[in-house]
Amino acid sequence: MKKSVYRLLVLVFGAITFGIIYNQLYPNGIKWQLYFPASIFGSENEIAIISADSALFFFQQGRAGFIDCRSKEDFELDHIVSAIHIPLNLLWNDIQPDLPSSKNIWILYDYEGSLDELSLASSNLTKNGITDVRVLFGGYVSWLEKNYPTELGEYF
Amino acid sequence: LTKYKKHALLIVRLVLGILFLWAAFYKLNAPAEFAQSLENYKVFDERISRFIAVFIPFLEVILGIFLIFGIWLKETFILTVLLYIIFDIMIFQAYLRDLDISCGCFSSSSSSPIGVAKFGENFLLTFLAVFGLLTVRKIIKSENLEPPMK
After folding, report:
1. pLDDT digits (tens, 9 = 90+) for A23-66
2. CB-CB: which of B29, B47, B79 is closest to A11?
3. Which of A66, A77, A116, A131 is an S-S bond match for A38, by CB 3.0 to 4.6 Å?
4. pLDDT band at A156 (very low <50, low <70, confident <90, very high)
5. Which residues does chain A have within 8 Å of residue B58's beta carbon, measured at their own beta carbons?
6. Residue-level pLDDT at B150
7. Across-strand partners of A135?
8. For residue A44, how far is the Cα from the chain centroid?
9. ∠ CA A140-A141-A144 to the nearest 5 degrees?
């Protein structure tokens, strides 16, 4: 009985350990920060939030660009005007996106502004040299609620 | 224990082991997609779904290898039965709630929608796992009853 419990624990904890290590190393893996609340990471993952009004202001000045982090299907339906699509799981994996240098503010958004997920994406972009990254408060929903400009995607 | 049952156990081990490895292959290639499939069942929140998506594929790999090579069979079958019962409950609740989702068992595509067929398929696998566990227990019991070799 005791031996069985020991073996069961070895199997389960072995799977958890291998799983965590694999996902840390695998480029498309789920990073460990994504199964804990962002608040426990302290200041490293603090993010700058921007309202839809301010985002529109910077966009109209030509200073800000948008990065759409929703799924490809959602992006192909519609998105904020001239947004670039980079799925969240790519941004979680320390990629260095080729962003136009004409913009100095990059605004990340998903559907409703999930700060925990976007905070990791934001800190990865910052680590990769993009200095001013902000997250759209309330996400795409807040943008739509204000009737700010959007465009249809390739689906149409 | 009959010779027939021993052969049946070997077949069950191979079938379940290969299925586990096959299922794990897709999940290891696309962990985020598997996490999304789990979230679609609307049982766990996104964080718990992600954590489960991290370790379930490796549990399947370990169980698959152990089943095929016959290592720690009692414990492996206990976990296999538990895993299949959890899968059954997940599929059944999704079916009752009329969730229009794919199983996420072997691929992320919608080719394996939740329904009576999927539940039946999983129930059969659970039955095989229970058969394996009971047979292995019998083998262990009968080996313990035999007098020690001189």
Report:
1. 888 877 887 777 766 554 544 556 788 888 889 988 988 889 99
2. B79
3. A116
4. low
5. 14-16, 18-19, 22
6. 45
7. A49, A108
8. 15
9. 85
Whether residues A30 and B53 touch (CB distance < 8 A) is answered with yes
Q: Give backbone dihedrals phi and psi of B118, rounded to 5 degrees, phi first.
A: -65, -40
How far does A67 lie from chain B, in Å, by closest CA? 20
CA distance B32 to chain A (A): 6
**Confidence check: pLDDT of B110 > 80:** no
Mean pLDDT, residues A63-92 taken together: 86
Q: What is the DSSP letter of A149?
A: -
Please give the model's pTM, rounded to 2 decimal places.
0.69
B69 touches chain A (CB under 8 A): no
Tokens of A100: 């136009």
Q: What average pLDDT score do residues B97-115 get?
A: 73
Asked if A23 lies within 8 A of B48 by C-beta distance, the reply is no
Separation in Å, CA of B55 to nearest CA in chain A: 5
| Contact residues for A103 (Cβ-Cβ < 8 A; gap 6+) | A62, A63, A64, A65
How far apart, in whole angstroms, are the C-alpha atoms of residue A108 and residue A125? 10
C-alpha to C-alpha distance for B130 and B80, rounded to whole angstroms:
9
Cβ contacts (< 8 Å) between A89 and chain B: which residues? Answer: 32
Q: What is the mean pLDDT of residues A92-106?
A: 78
pLDDT band at B54 (very low <50, low <70, confident <90, very high): very high
Question: Which residues in chain A have their CB less than 8 angstroms from residue B75's CB?
Answer: 4, 7-8, 11
- As for the ipTM of the complex, it is 0.86
Q: Enter the tokens of residue B94.
A: 């999704």
* Paired tokens of A60: 């109209």
Cα separation, B1 vs B140, whole angstroms? 11
Contact A15 B58 (CB under 8 A): yes
* C-alpha closest to that of A132 among A69, A47, A62, A45: A47
